[in-house]
């Protein structure tokens, strides 16, 4: 691995960490994000607000062994959740874990997030749900790892959201789109009975060539 790849990942993490806070997807020192650089993952340090992390402060952890290579700060307390997810699905290059208000509100009243609009169908697909377990434990890490092979977006009951992607941009956009979906669904439910997309309508969106192009572009861009 070249130094420049790691440096690039550090800068991207810093950029998206600030976006996450600016968009209100976490408050205070909540949430944690990571991205792969070769055999390592670079993970947010514990106790920092995401927006305060400088490029050199992302913590290097060996994905295979779980060994933490930096000792100045502790890695995020959700280090196991990130490690297990990367080990389970080698296609994952980045993980965004946030505490978005509408996602959390949704998990308090519903275990599902139906397909509501085209961007959700094209960029996210089906969202899954993990019942409440104590954060920071291997119970949560195991529960998330069991889902990351099949789903890129996982609602955590009474807790928040995990999204994965082929790069940070994709994982981040998925967080934004799932939060927007939760917001729309809750608003619609409060007003009446939501009309959701049918399976056929969902599949039709996924088969659009223009959407495939957009998703491909999203995965390529850094
Ligand atoms: Zn959390």
UniProtKB/TrEMBL annotation:
State the species of origin.
Paenibacillus albilobatus
Q: What is this protein called?
A: Aldolase
Molecular function GO terms recorded: aldehyde-lyase activity; metal ion binding
Please give the superkingdom of this protein's source. Answer: Bacteria
Question: Is Lyase among the key words of this record?
Answer: yes
Q: Which SMART domains match?
A: Aldolase_II (SM01007)
Q: Which GO terms describe its biological process?
A: pentose catabolic process
Q: Which PANTHER family match?
A: 3-OXO-TETRONATE 4-PHOSPHATE DECARBOXYLASE-RELATED (PTHR22789:SF0), FUCULOSE PHOSPHATE ALDOLASE (PTHR22789)
């Amino acid at each position: 691995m070249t130094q420049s790849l790691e440096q690039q990942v550090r800068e991207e993490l810093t950029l998206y960490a600030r976006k996450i806070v600016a968009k209100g997807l976490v408050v205070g020192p909540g949430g944690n994000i990571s991205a792969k650089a070769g055999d390592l993952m670079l993970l947010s340090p514990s106790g920092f607000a995401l927006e305060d992390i400088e490029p050199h402060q992302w913590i290097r952890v060996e994905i295979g062994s779980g060994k933490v290579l930096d000792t100045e700060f502790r890695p995020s307390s959700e280090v196991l959740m990130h490690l297990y997810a990367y080990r389970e699905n080698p296609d994952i290059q980045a993980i965004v874990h946030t505490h978005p208000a509408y996602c959390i509100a949704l998990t308090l009243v519903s275990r599902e997030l139906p397909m509501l609009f085209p961007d959700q169908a094209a960029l996210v697909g089906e969202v899954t749900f993990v019942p409440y377990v104590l954060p920071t434990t291997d119970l949560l890490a195991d529960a998330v790892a069991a889902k990351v092979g099949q789903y890129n977006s996982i609602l955590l009951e009474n807790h928040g959201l995990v999204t994965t992607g082929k790069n940070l941009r994709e994982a981040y956009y998925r967080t934004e789109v799932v939060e927007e979906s939760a917001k729309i669904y809750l608003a619609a439910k409060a007003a009446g009975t939501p009309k959701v997309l049918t399976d056929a309508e969902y599949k039709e969106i996924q088969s659009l060539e223009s959407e495939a192009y957009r998703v491909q572009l999203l995965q390529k861009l850094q």
